[in-house]
Here is the input.
Amino acid sequence: MDIQFLYSEDCPSHEAALSRLQQVLREEGIEAEVRVREVETEEQAIRLRFAGSPTIIMTATISFLYRIHTTLLHAVPTDWRTVASLRSHRL
Here is the structure.
């Protein structure tokens, strides 16, 4: 599973959202690297499909032909929504 955590510097809730994401990963026993990236320009935002700060993008590959993409758009995603999304991406 690939997890990207995108945020803008002026976002007041990105630290809480990242902390919650990491906590849920630990609680669910999911070993995944979370790539944290600050989005600094409009060009980056377009290229990365940055929907707002923070944006959490999870991608899982089920086979070489099929990939699942999920984006959580909440400022601080609820634990149940994060857990449900992570569970649906387990292989």
